[in-house]
Amino acid sequence: MRLTRLRLNGFKSFVDPTDLVIHEGLTGVVGPNGCGKSNLLEALRWVMGENRPSAMRGGGMEDVIFNGAATRGARHFAEVALVIDNTDRLAPAGFNDADQIEIVRRITRDAGSAYRCNSKDVRARDVQMLFADASTGSHSPALVRQGQISELINAKPKARRRVLEEAAGISGLYARRHEAELK
Ligand code: ATP
Ligand code: MG
To answer: Where in the cell is it found (predicted)?
Structure first.
């Protein structure tokens, strides 16, 4: 599985549709202060099912919707699409019936979030599981936030262990056990 494209529309400062091609290997985002580098990383976490407004640097989830600028009005919705190349067919069961997987998350003011996977409605939980199993979820150490390296250096052993578990790909198992215990 490989992330190949990120499309944003009305997400934070990305008011106009933006299509980002993700090439193989390490990706870095560079640009002047305030140009939207952190917003891009947040879009990636958000489409993977991040549900804590604080992780999006907002007070509520609707704060991810473009809220207007001097010359442009606010938008009513935000949408982020993530395209995954699944030609290796390594996606978890339930997602593994196509060579390409497109996850779309859309939030509308006063109507909350909705997710689609290859044009079919899915639950937030399904999307979170997909990425937890693939060790690339919204909490994944593959996405390095600003200031995260120093946080890790200063972290308590338990917090550091969580990062290692995520990297080892076993956090999806924890999530499934938790879900099984609730049933
Ligand atoms: P730095 O180099 O300082 O870390 P950055 O490139 O990471 O900057 P971001 O933090 O991604 O920049 O982008 C900040 C910009 O996004 C600000 O100009 C802020 O006003 C804008 N922004 C954030 N949320 C919204 C929103 N909901 N609507 C419109 N603009 C927004
Ligand atoms: Mg930043």
So the answer is: Cytoplasm
